[in-house]
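Would you kindly consider the sequence and fold I have copied below?
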Amino acid sequence: MTFAASLPQELISRVDAAVDADTDRLVETFKDIHRNPELAFGEVQTSRLIEKALQNLGFDVTKGIGRTGIAATLRNGDGPVVMYRADMDANAIEEQTGLDYASDVRVAREDGSVVPAAHMCGHDAHVTWLIGMANALVTVRDSWSGTAVLIGQPAEEPITGAKAMVDDGLYNFIPKPDVLIGMHTMPAPVGIVSSSPGPRLAGTDQVDIVFHGVGGHGSMPERTKDPLQMAARAVVAFSSVVPEHVDPSQTAILTVGAIAAGADNNVIPSQAVIRTNIRWYDPRVRETLLDAIESVSQQIARDAGAGDDLLPEIIVKGGSLPLVNDPELAASMSTSLAAIIGDDSVLTDLPAATASEDVQILKGPYPDMPFNYLMVGTADPELVAAARARGDEVPFSPHTPNYIVDLAAVPYGTKIAAYAMLGLLRGQ
């Protein structure tokens, strides 16, 4: 197929009019999702919101794929099958934006802990764009032919949701796509879009290290084998793994996100867990990092007197391959979008990042499926200008308590999603 066809001005105007007329609803939808964030695999309300919106538009909807995932299909004659994904989950972060629709939600996790929840990565915008784009596609249904497959995906943050949907039979409910696309917010000015080819985001793994020991009274540490001490030494040792084991020309990151152990001041626990995260582009680097985590952890445990029965467990909980945009698809989409929003508004050379995604895992049994991931600027241009004036590249970053999607990005991102889908659905 020819990937992204140029859109005639008459169709662009119709899309713009449909989204403009829908903007008030979309902004309220966005605020509602933002006020009511749900963590990974708990996206019950968000999933239901997508389900109802798409059913009302005439999509065939299947819910509960991969626990809370949604797959919706709109068949509109012969033509390409284009799949579009939006992720739904929020972050366990306490929001500090001061917005009048800010989240104050607390969520009980399966382990019994209670954590704050907030959309500090823009998934609330992603869901809103999907809903608004679906409405636009239906509004201009006479202008395209093919099949639109829209995915509401759970659990992107732990990098487990896409795999869960595929493993739960996603392709039993949808036709095989000819192409897969996704979109994500970025803290660039509203109006900027990136469609850059090649490697975009790093591969990642979420790795837990469970240190086992012998607990006891805080007054008698000599009678224990303290797993907290092991964990503390491991955290320090992990900081040397990358410089000591990985070629400096390679991308490699190992970070510690949490340590969980104990409950009382005067009790030495029998177990401590370190939650780590690795990032990589070369699979050999991944193996090096995993091997180093295991060997460092085992050596620390043995130095603390742990026998074979108390050696640490290494648990890889979830992960994803590097995200790589198809060069031909990225180029054709950038050309199609630039014809609408202007060459200066479309970036084709955005540097690769060390953040990660799992949208490409939705390819499932079709690894050669063409794929492209757009990045859409969602920051207030004045905030971006002020940040750059003080020497900062961006006003805020994803996964921080003050990440803000400007409300102007709600209709703008919806239009970009609609342009992108229509360009592909009109391609032959």
In short: The mean pLDDT is 97.
